[in-house]
Amino acid sequence: MRHPWTPCRAAWPALGLLTLAAVPAWAQQAMQQAQQAQQAQQDTQGGGSAANTQPPLELRMSVMQTFTNNVDLSDTDKRADAITRLSPGLRWVSRAGRVRGFVDYSLNTLTYLRDNSTDLRNALASNATAELLERHAYLDAQAVISQQSINPLDAQSTDDQVGRRNRTEVRTLNLTPRVQGRLGDVAQWDASLGYQTSHSTSANAPSFSSTTTQARLGNGEALTALRWSLQASHIARSFSSGRSTAQDTVRGVLDYRINPELSTGVIAGWESTDIASSTKQNRTNYGLRLNWVPSERARLNAEVERRFFGNAHNVSFFYRLPRAVLSYTDVRSLSNGVGQPSTVTEGTWYNVLDKSIPSSVTNPAERDALVRDYLSQYNITANPEVLQAFLSSGVTVSRQQQLSFAWLLQRDTITFTLQQSDGRRISTVVAGSDVFSSFSNIQQRGYSLTLAHRLTALSTLSLGLTQRETSGGELETRLRTMTAAWSTQLNTRAKFSLLGRHSRFTSPSAPYSESALVGTLATTF
After folding, report:
1. What is the pLDDT of residue 236?
2. What is the value of pTM for the model shown?
3. Could you tell me which of 256, 297, 247, 298 has the C-alpha nearest to residue 274?
4. How do 137-149 and 81-94 pair as beta strands?
5. 59, 158, 368, 371: least surrounded by Cβ within 10 Å?
6. Cα distances (Å, whole numbers) of residue 217 to 147, 183, 250, 251
7. Could you tell me if 113 and 9 are in contact, meaning their C-beta atoms sit under 8 angstroms apart?
């Protein structure tokens, strides 16, 4: 039963938003004076960067109020709603010691005013390594909790608060204990046993788990022009709505360093797997490698290998200009869906901006503080959602391409990301039901453009345009979203932002349009 839309029920979100925004103007002036005094004190004392004194644990709290005219993303039955989001969270970072890495977690409570319902969601990004036995035993741990699509061709949005029926929470955990050692001055060895699981909270989305056993031998860090390594691995995969598969691989790599800037290599190996058929098939693998670092401003890494599913490759390029950064990646590999991260990072724009900092800034804590200050100042999302990620009920071949460019001016920042993905299931033995049961492959193309202008030392205005096109067979959809946002720093720990959004989704079966106003107050402790 739907609750009536009474004036008093509709009033409190608006009052709450006005209360958040009604901060006295002297708060901004006080912050400017505090910053000037702090800078003067540092200049007088000759003190170091504030980044060196940042605590490893940061607590935060944010309150977000959203008003939307189409909460269900429907073209025939539009329903306006007010959504209140409370998000306590924490961020822990360690760049030294026996445990290194980061953990970023928030618990989001979403309250929908119209039907008086509450939705509890988790958001987590974590990547850490613990040294259990000095220089010999380690534990690598990665974890991600995110909102993903169930069907990439159904109604979608850049805001996970609307269109809930096509969203699910995906929880991924990867634990890998490993040991390593040396064989005199000749070689290094390491062995690991990894466990990964991806679980969806929706019964309409599949879950996945795998175990990986691996051993490797090589001369690794030896100061020689010729480097070699030999690796053997066994991977067992299992899907909740699909079949189990196994993969055995032996791989050898030989690299030759032509000069300090350039090295090339060859790959040779063998693998046996039942991923593509009901019985195991054997195949010989071969490939090439290239690493080129002409200067600290540029880097090119490329690897291509002939596998049982065709060509696999991993190409990355980076170039830094005085006020601009260009980054490109192209990866074609095996996956348990599309858009599933092979490693957990702190975000696309975090990584790009980190590369823009000169190598002369060697302190990791200082680099982290510089990047996060810049992201916050220009209201840039560290990891924007351009394309959708989704799980499958079998092993897929996924190709992910991304071109990122950032132009960093004195008071303006322009960021542009172009992404493309292509996913298809390998197995001809279909044992589960997912989007690949209806379409042989799913293609996505999209871009995100943001223009940010710093109005004052405390306030920023930004405009954004995002477009995403998804196709499966003859079915094509397109989502275009335009945003305008204003943000200001209220004091040294609090920030307020106001965003307007308009989205239009084109689809043969479920088109819609949606507009929203979003206010956010965030503070750290």
Report:
1. 95
2. 0.84
3. 247
4. unpaired
5. 59
6. 39, 9, 12, 11
7. yes
